[in-house]
Amino acid sequence: MTHALNLTLPIKQDAETQAALAHLKEIFAAQVQPAIAAALKQSRIVHFARVVVIDDKYIQVITEYEGSHEEYTEFFRRALTPVFAAIFALADGVPDVDDPNAFWAFARDHNLRSLGETTSGSTSFDGKPAGWLFSAYDGRTVETMLEAID
Amino acid sequence: MADLSNVQAIVARRSAREFFAVLLFRIGDPMAARAFLRQWTPSAPGGMAPEVAGEGALHFLFGWKGMERLLAGHPLLDVARGRVEFESFFVDASHSADSLAMARQLGFHGDSAPEGWWGGGFKSGDIDIAVYGCFESDAHRTGEVERLRASARRCRLEELPVTAFPGEALAGYRPPKGRLHFGYRDGLSEPAVDWADAGMAGGVNLREFIAGYPNADYPTAPRAPGPWQDFAREGSYGCLTWLYQDVAGFNGFLRDHAAEAESAAGGADPQEWLAAKLMGRWRDGSPLSLHPGGQPAETVADNEFGYADDPLGVKCPLTAHIRVVYPRDQPLKFANRVRFPGGSPRLIRRGFSYGAPLASAQDDGQDRGLVGLFFCGRVNEQFYTILRWMQLTDFSDAFRSIPDGRRRQDALLGTRPDPNANTAMHAPANAGPPFAAPLTNFIRYRGVAVLFAPSLAALKILSGA
After folding, report:
1. B406 within some domain
2. How far is B445 from chain A (nearest CA, A)?
3. Which of A31, B318, B334, B381 could hold B313 in an S-S bridge, CB 3.0 to 4.6 Å?
């Protein structure tokens, strides 16, 4: 079952944080993006992923992935620890990304529910029906899609 | 190095006793509850200490709410901070085993839904204190339980009665010759824990089972050095699980499909062959991986085997219970290899059978099954993960090799029906097509609670000693 992650963090507005954000933007294509891509490519559980900055005030990590939030949050933390450390450092209340417990709580508390209601049975972190996530291929898994085109 | 003598003995070693009971309590008055603990916890055995003749061996576990109440006002252990530092899946009721967020993915639905747990009399989150007792005889258990209950009443502990049991407490026995209700011999496999933390060959890292020594591979909570990590050190999460076993249904499955299985079974008894393919061991305990052709004349307790030479599950099906809950050398998928750099998650299993053996072919309407305590250092990454794998076998790339492989279930313990899963049995044969048959629910969860078994030192803190 495909779940959506809409991790949304308000970015601190102090000069130091804004400079860190500018640096992240600058290095993203050359350094951050390949690191994320390498991990997600091997995982075969992530459909899509992107990082969005809104007016230098919010940063979003948005992905669609297989399995429950509880099952794979720890994979994302371990596979992408420096990436999440850099992104989380832009926000208040930054957790220790080496701490799975703190990372889980932070991800849970900063995930935004999409509008609408799921048609696939996927759930939010609280177990209630997730927001709407359109799938052109009716929620088929990454593995299924890859096998179909291999 | 861990102080093994500080670990409650129920974690460190098996009990040698034959009779068991678990009493569940809700705290009425924390001060009085601490007096109860001061009376009983000093004799709790630690490490490998043998049980003392004539005495009940008592082990103590706590729900988070219970610990919170006992520690309220402690000068060093701020419970608000503890709520953050202890593992969320222990502390946070919204992610407890019976929660909306967790129950479905762990297999707790249908006949196993939490609404019916514990006989309906209370919720898992009501359990503040659990006392797991090991006794020499039925009479010894009766007497010791009555002493405990009298003391609990004086200390205003409200017992949570499990009315399905004659004594209104989870109680049972070590099954004769180690044979559980389905006929399988139990107790043959136990993680060899590297308690000395010395890199013991073939040993399982101690952090897989106890808190207080977190590292990058085993980031147990509390992660940060400080009073809560000190408190948790050498404690272990104990996941109390009450399972009903549908023995008549299980025997009926074997009987009903024996004729179809005869050809695939070769010369083996087809019912025994089916039972072995569900479990991954012959019912005498001998592993299929070492004895694929038939049950050996004598039980082979050898646990030194893997699945590298059996990628398709011809010897031991990929969905066999022991291969799902502990895949040994079978490669996990990438995301799980990242999650578990030290290898597949493990659990220390303790527990007992309850209810009389079924003596007839038809169900006699009697309750029977097992009560398990599964110890681990991380609830979500170990206990919950293994439960998820039992419900959906998408944890290993090996399942690509069988039809619909990533949607299969643990053949023995999967919760059925499940619209997200292919619930048919799939047992490849040496020759001919794989054996296939629709699987039914052989077990039902009747209660699950995630508790914490503190160290002996932490028990003193909880008791206010």
Report:
1. yes
2. 20
3. B318
